[in-house]
Amino acid sequence: MRVLVVDTDRVGLDISMRAANAGHEVRLFRYSAKPNRYATGFSPLFTIVDDWRQHMSWAKDGLILLTANNRYVYELDRYREMGFRNIFAPTVMSARLEIERSAGMQAMQAIGHQIPHYETFSSLAEAEAFARKSDRAWVHKPMGDEEDKSLTYVSHDPADMVGWLQRQIKKGKKVKGKVMLQEKVEALCELGVSGWMGPEGFLPGKFQACVEHKKLHDGEIGPATGEQGTLTQYYDKDKLAEEMLLPLEPMLRALGHRGDFAVGAMIDTKGKSHFLEFTARCGYPCWWIQTASHRGDPVRWMKDLLDGKDSLKVSYDPAIGVVMSQPHYPYETASADQVEGVPIRGVEDVMPDVHLVEVMKGTGPVMEGGKVVDRPVFETAGEYVCVATALGKTIEKARSRVYAVVDKIKFPDRVYRTDIGCKVIPKLNALHKFGYVTDLT
Fold first, then answer.
1. Rounded Cα distance, 202 and 153, in Å
2. How far apart are CA 103 and CA 73, in angstroms?
3. CATH of span 2-93
4. pTM of this prediction?
5. What are the structural domain ranges in the chain?
6. pLDDT tens string for the chain (441 positions)?
7. In what order do the strands lie in the sheet with 340-344?
8. Which residue, 217, 348, 398, 441, is the most exposed by fewest CB within 10 angstroms?
């Protein structure tokens, strides 16, 4: 099968490698806002192309995969109008549910889900003035297509929120649209659930629950990274999916969404779920953990999904992904000479369980017959280097296996958390009591 990967979020290298190794003919397009050499040196395994549009006709009878939702979605919608039915990607309108928080909130309200009380403001200064007069704790979130995750903040009390907003204003932070202060929920745990959306709706019996670890350091300490690691598990039936995902199915079918769609929620101490956000794309590191949980051909099932067929085989065991990075992650302020060309050792020993992200192939020194010789080696091509994954019958077994993979992968100044999967363990009894992630142990 011909596979065209349109990668705008550094997600495409691993799936391109796996698809090519499964016998598919793969072409990879890479977009980056700054020069990036990831995926170079992998020819002839797959071909890197400079303009994906020139290869759409080539891939029309195969699979076209877009890895994100922030670029080229408008153009791909036009290709759909021209008869392309093999595009695994969100549409403009389904992507909007993630990109614009207000659109996502309106979608949840449309299916009857109550949103915690919130107030909206046109500026950080307006929000600061409101918080100063308040008597409760708030969560600050941007409402529009704001990509600056640093503008999401959970306060301890009104004074904490006022102080944080003052610091953002002093830094010169600006917002593209409105911002909101939402009442803080007394939380038990954050959970997410995702499903695979095709023309007939979600694939039945394949809903993936997840627990994200968003901070840089163990114990949820340090700056937010998006996700530093995630615990997931496939379910044939899931309470959160029934509450928040499946009711959206008619809407998502009408919007033409194809591929992964996820909802993030907060479970409060009384067992009630509260909507947080949508993800309408290949999430990371979840995308690589999903890949690790799949059985058989890594991409054929995507084409089948677009054709209205279900050929996806999954493992229902707990799975863990651990992000491995290097400085200046998560800020991505390093120059190319600081993050490119660093040798990565041990990848060959754990290749099925490592998912290369910002990696290239080069030539470097290795030991051979007791001597130093130059041979082809894997090298870093950015701060976000790779993701190690593993499955197990329990969380602890998955943790033991994934960190055995991590220990094999060596490069200078590697950064990773050692506690991925741990934070949910003390909360499992309560979550099970409320009917969530009932098979997770």
1. 33
2. 17
3. 3.40.50.20
4. 0.94
5. 2-93, 117-183, 187-333+384-433
6. 999 999 998 999 999 999 999 999 999 999 876 667 899 999 999 999 999 999 999 999 999 999 999 889 999 999 999 999 999 999 999 999 999 988 999 999 999 998 989 999 999 999 999 999 999 999 998 887 656 667 889 999 999 999 999 999 999 988 878 899 999 988 999 999 999 999 999 999 999 999 999 999 999 999 889 899 999 999 999 999 999 999 999 999 999 999 999 999 999 999 999 999 999 999 989 999 999 999 999 999 999 999 999 999 999 999 999 999 999 999 888 888 899 999 999 999 999 999 999 999 999 898 889 999 999 999 999 999 999 999 999 999 999 999 999 999 999 999 999 999 999 999 999 999 999 999 999
7. 340-344, 371-381, 359-368
8. 348
Distance of alpha carbon 13 from the chain centroid: 15
- The residue type of 140 is H
Q: Of 92, 94, 19, 30, which Cα lies nearest the Cα of 62?
A: 19
Taking the C-alpha atoms of residue 296 and residue 218, their distance in angstroms, rounded to an integer, is 34
Identify the CA nearest to 402 among candidates 316, 289, 302: 289
What sign results for the dihedral spanned by CA atoms 274, 276, 279, 283?
A: negative
Say which CATH architecture domain 117-183 belongs to. Answer: 2-Layer Sandwich (3.30)
Provide the pairing of β-strand 179-183 with 118-121: antiparallel
Concatenated DSSP letters for 120-144? EESSHHHHHHHHHT-SS-EEEEE-S
Which residue(s) pair with 378 in the sheet? 344, 361
